[in-house]
Design goal:
The complex is a heterodimer of chains A (182) and B (467). Chain A has 182 residues and is of the alpha+beta class. Chain A has helices at residues 20-32, 49-52, 59-86, 99-126, 162-170, and strands at 10-17, 38-41, 149-154, 176-181. Chain A folds into two domains: 10-57 and 132-181, no CATH class; 60-126, no CATH class. Chain B is mainly α and 467 residues long. Chain B is 68% helix and 0% strand. Chain B has helices spanning 24-33, 42-68, 83-107, 117-138, 142-149, 165-198, 202-212, 219-252, 264-290, 299-330, 333-345, 349-361, 369-372, 375-402, 417-440, 446-451. The chains are: A alpha+beta (182), B mainly alpha (467). At the A-B interface, helix 1, strand 2, helix 2, helix 3 and helix 4 of A face helix 1, helix 6, helix 8 and helix 16 of B.
Chain lengths: 182, 467
């Protein structure tokens, strides 16, 4: 078995910005220029930034609704099955199927499964936990969680060209454009 | 919220939540500096010392309880529920303010919540932990309580009775604990990433890095994150209202005079928020001073919390008035006797009047703006409310139970030293957890505070960016 020397692949070009405004403007420009494999990084959420990059997703609410419905069915089903089928017991002459009394636990399981599916879908869609990601190779990327803003155009973007893209990003008010490896 | 069209000095104009002059850098440095410091405040050691000592008392009390059984407590018949349930309700109630601040105020777009939400959420979780100790150990043999309380296919083919409010309580409180932890952790993820990137020590950076799950502040992740946070807030709101409602059902569903009242659910929820805000203030006033957070937790925050306390306090007093009215208007001998016994002739009438002093009279000081902005006065009122809300549960539980329908079964209730040791022990557990949290995790939501800065709200450029 021979070991080829692995040449690190370029992941993409990363531009650093000083303010949320220049990042958002740059994101709009990148989207207008037709780049599709892009992402932006900021220390806090910036409204309209993901949309500016052409990102749209409405999955989480649907997953949460599904989780909630499942929680309701599971909770009520458990109560019905255990109190009516598995272990019917006459308690103070109350009906086996005590609808009103079954509401609070079913209500709680609805919320429980909704919340867990919300958290789970957030992690799943973001791909967390993700210990390694090429953007961390940027020497100043640790500032993305403090006060700096970054924008990346990936090398596998159909419009990507090492030089033209670099010039393009440089023209958007970026402080510095750095090529990062995989 | 961010309407700037009001004339200068107009009362409708929003008050700046942070003191001016803050920036991304100053917020990051300040809040990471609280943890990455060699100069932990002396007071921190004092609080943890007291808390940890009391925590040892808790361990001792619980060990003795498991050895001897719950006979070491003062509970008797008819007062079968006493300190254990009083403290349970007290702690659960305290927890409610955290969820209210982070979820309900998020839905109402109250930006001022951001400075206090993180520590209030932590307080919620720790209060629920303290609360859970009481019912679990009141079962006497908690290892058996697993099949008493939780529905799982056991070898005896037994299932819990879902018609009982006590089982509703198990579902409500365990859901509340789980959802609070999930909500809190979700809020922590971006800040843990900030800690990962600021940590100088490699191992520390690794630990925060693992907890941050690889967060990198991607716009797509923020988009999903905001979506999920809003949904979690939306889910926590009905949850928090249901939890204390279900706790109040423990009483209201019973037929005992003093418990069997329809006012209980809203009255308990208001009381929970009341007690919770008092506890948030009790914790934040020293913390703010200890860590010099006056720029982030401003007088505006303290004043707002004092206002919430005043309002919820008045709702609670309305609850007291309703109890009196219901008792009288019912025309029922037992109801009327319960009221006379509670407020006037009974041996615990002093507790009722102390309760009114703590929960009704003293908090009226908060009507005055000058007092709301005076930290010692606010702290003084909070201490009264903390005590008052404990007394409220004492009055509801003990005075209703100790003289029930048949005079031959009447009995006085006296707590034992083990009751007190367990109660103060949970305060120690709470203090220990709270101060450890402050020491190792971001006590204010760093990324949320940054969104309050004017430079964090860029304007979309021309096309396609309108939203």
């Amino acid at each position: 078995m021979s070991h080829a020397i692995e040449v690190p692949q370029t992941y993409g070009l990363m531009a650093e910005f000083d303010s949320a405004q220049t990042l958002l403007d740059a994101a709009h420009a990148v989207q207008r220029a037709g780049y599709t494999k892009t992402d932006a990084f900021s220390p806090m959420p910036i409204h309209g930034l993901a949309e500016a990059l052409g990102f749209e997703e409405h999955l989480i609410p649907k997953i949460v609704l599904t989780g909630g419905i499942l929680g309701l069915i599971a909770g009520y089903g458990l109560e019905y099955w255990s109190s009516v089928i598995a272990f019917p017991m006459n308690i103070g002459g109350r009906p086996y199927h005590s609808i009103v009394a079954f509401i609070p636990p079913a209500y709680e399981t609805t919320i429980l499964l909704s919340a867990l599916s919300c958290f789970g879908s957030l992690l799943f869609l973001c791909g967390f936990p993700e210990p390694y990601h090429p953007v961390f190779n940027h020497p100043r990327f640790s500032l993305a969680t403090a006060d700096k803003f970054f924008l990346v155009i990936e090398a596998n973007d159909p419009k990507f060209s090492p030089d033209a893209t670099k010039t393009f990003l440089g023209g958007l008010g970026a402080k510095e454009v750095v090529s990062v490896n995989e | 919220m961010h309407n700037t069209s009001f004339p200068e000095g107009d009362f409708r104009a929003p008050v700046p939540v942070l003191t001016p002059g803050q920036g991304y850098r100053s917020i990051t440095d300040k809040l990471t500096g609280l943890v990455f410091t060699a100069n932990t405040p002396r007071a921190w050691f004092a609080f943890v010392g007291v808390g940890f000592s009391l925590l040892m008392c808790l361990l001792m009390a619980l060990t003795w309880l498991l050895l001897k059984g719950i006979g070491i407590w003062g509970n008797n018949i008819p007062v079968g529920w006493a300190f254990d349930i009083i403290n349970f309700v007290w702690w659960i109630g305290i927890g409610h303010a955290g969820t209210l601040i982070s979820a309900v105020l998020l839905l109402f777009k109250q930006d001022w919540r951001m400075s206090i939400s993180r520590s209030a959420e932590a307080m919620t979780i720790f209060a629920v932990v303290c609360a859970a100790i009481f019912p679990i150990f009141h079962t006497g043999r908690p290892w058996l309580a697993i099949y008493w309380l939780l529905p799982y296919p056991n070898t005896m083919l037994l299932w819990p009775n879902f018609r009982s409010p006590l089982i509703w309580d198990v579902f409500a409180v365990s859901t509340y604990a789980t959802v609070s932890i999930v909500f809190w952790y979700t809020g922590l993820i971006p800040d843990l990433a900030t800690f990962r990137d600021r940590a100088k020590n490699k191992i520390v950076a690794r630990v925060y890095g693992m907890l941050a799950l690889g967060w990198r502040g991607s716009a797509k992740h923020w988009y999903r994150y905001e979506n999920a946070s809003l949904l979690l807030a939306g889910l926590s709101t009905p949850l928090v209202l249901s939890v204390h409602t279900v706790v109040s059902f423990d009483f209201a569903v019973a037929v005992l005079p003093g418990w069997h009242a329809t006012i209980f659910p809203p009255y308990f929820v208001a009381g929970a928020v009341y007690a919770g805000f008092a506890m948030v203030l009790t914790l934040l006033i020293p913390l703010r001073k200890m860590y010099g957070l006056q720029d982030l937790i401003t007088m505006h925050h303290i004043e707002n919390m004092a206002k919430v306390m005043l309002v919820t306090g008045l709702i609670v007093v309305y609850g007291y008035a309703c109890e009196l009215f219901f008792g009288w208007y019912s025309g029922n001998t037992y109801e009327r006797f319960m009221l006379i016994n509670r407020t006037w002739r009974g041996p615990y009438a002093w507790a009722y009047w102390m309760l009114l002093l703590c929960n009704f009279i003293v908090p009226q000081l908060m009507w005055s703006k000058r007092f709301r902005r005076n930290i010692p006065v606010v702290f003084f009122v909070c201490m009264f409310v903390n005590v008052g809300m404990w007394l409220e549960r004492f009055v509801i539980i003990v005075t209703s139970l100790h003289r029930d329908f048949i005079p031959s079964s009447w009995q006085m209730y006296y707590p034992t030293r083990w009751d007190f040791l367990t109660f103060f022990g949970t305060i120690g557990l709470f203090l220990t957890l709270m101060f450890l949290f402050v020491r190792v995790l971001p006590m204010l939501a760093i990324f949320e505070l940054k969104t309050l800065l004017p430079e964090a709200k860029p304007k979309a450029s021309g096309d396609g960016g309108s939203h």
